[in-house]
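User: Structure tokens for both sequences below?

Assistant:
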Amino acid sequence: MKYLIKNPVSIALCFIFFAGALAGCRSVEEYIIPKKEYIAYDEIKYNVVHPVNIEIIGQTGNIEIYSWDEKAVKFEIAKKVRLADESLGDKLTKNIKIITNCENEKDIILEWKCEGQEGSILDYQVDLKVLLPKKVESIKCKIDVGKVRIFDDLKCELFADFNMVNIKINKFEGTLKLKGEMSNLEINEGTIKNGSEVKVNMGNIKIKANYEAGGSYYLETNVGNIDLTLPSDLAVSFENNGYVQVNEFEPGNHPVKIKTACGMGRICIYKY
């Protein structure tokens, strides 16, 4: 089970392989022919004057988010296609359509879609590097398969809707709303604000952070582990539903309320 959680793309690949073999739709040779990767690059930049709202929607891809000193949002885009037929490389990278829009120098949307694709959807991918100004109001991210990595300090509301996507955040301050089918979440530093919720069907939740005073929080995984590390002087109460392996905090009625739910797995709560 741990292997499945850590390797969601492998599940999809195996499913496609066996489904095609059983249905007799494609030969086995089609899946074992070496494929070559073709890449087409693009760049989009919007100047902004307000704290921005970013929305990113895509199918298969990887996202890296950084902050910079410019009052602008910049997208560095790599459209990737893996093919056995070399003659189709340039043509099929154009089938990955990038759709962007910026309203009021504040609300920015970037979406990618695959049109007229040949082969598996997993052979079409967008690697996206996002450079954000210091003031961000919210980020919404909806991705099917891939990973998200936030390298610099992020202060905003973060809304994530994932299918098979892992997300790792260096430092986060704000409200987090995350829903994932097969997703791992890792936060290494920051302050989680009131009303944050994480709901994962299969995956691990690992958070080392402080929590807003008087806040209420909910963390849930049906299959996976929950690892929380909190300041040793935090006045926090836990309501745990599942197997608690470690809880270094004394029970009591405190201003910070955290509810955890873990179906198949364990809950560990540590002090730092």
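Moving on to the next sequence.
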Amino acid sequence: MFKLFENRLYFLLISLLILFGFYLCFVGGYGSDEDTLPMIQVFEARLRDGTFISSRFTGYPIPEIGIGFLSYYFGSWAANSVTFLLHILSLIFIYLTFFKKIEIEKLNLFFLLSLSSPVLFFDNLEPIDYSWGFFFFSIGTYFFSKKIFELAILAFAFSIGCRLNFIIFCLPFVFLYSFDDKINLKKKLMICLNIFVIGGLFYLPVWFFHAFGLDWLTAARPLDQGLFGLFARFTYKTWIAIGLFQLFIIFYFFMKNFKELLFKKNQLLTILIILNLLLFFYIPAELSYLQPALIFLYLILINDASKKIIFSLILFNFLSWGINFQILEIKHRDSSLCAGKQAISASFVLKIIPGSVKNYFDTRDMIKCWANPNTERGKRILMGKSTRVK
């Protein structure tokens, strides 16, 4: 009877979180990510006269078209809501991949961990492409686990079409996922080749545009402070993404169960986490780069950690919605709202600052940095309306 009540309480809390998320999708506008408007512009340019432009170095064709379409015809609420919905669905499919049987309690705890994480919750309320890439990756893992290889190949290829870096998750997953009856190496190589080729087709236009050069594969990296600067950014941002106190709890758990976790099970999830961390070390930019690692980490925890540890993590996650504990005072070259955040120095400090909810609402004005208020399109963007000027 108590377990039934507990699961109902979980379900109620998860439902409230999802409803709150969709509410924010409707009131949040086009968000605080500088890449959103360029993605919309890609769709508008191709719709207008077929002009080829890329939103960033590589460009990400599927979310550029998807987010652009939703924003152009419906507005920010549609782009935000679909992005958040894809995030919710991806959590379901990735859970079903690694847990053959649906255990309601574990599924509830996984959702609570994921939805309470500020990075996984608030970053997916905006029209960005991380959710789109992970959604297709998650359904790819699900189809692959069910041996529906044709659909798995398409889903993995689509995830690469959403974000090129998902290739570092797709190919290792195919090689390392373990079935009861093993698949021979030749078949796995053929599946990986198909994923690579089909996923690569999405990037043919940008490859042609650069006259068969590969310079578009290299994104801007913060190398001005050398290897030490990269390591400092990587360490600090990883800590922030996981959480100040949460990191200590997780570190304690892994040290206590090191051999069992890494050598007897969870090898695939651990390798995927390491690959994500290596990618983030290479370019320690937005915290959302670590979204896959956080989800893989939570999958390990709900399977092996005690309820006490999981509840502690959920509690501290929710605490960070209201307040946060700042451990570094970072000075930027230009601290104005619209300036690029280029850190020049940092000093240790411990103080309480507003949490993720206030930060979310405070950053709604950042869209002003990229929208021209003197045009009809810019005015519509600032109001969160569709970008279609009639």
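User: Anything stand out in the second?

Assistant: The first strand starts at residue 323 and ends at 332.
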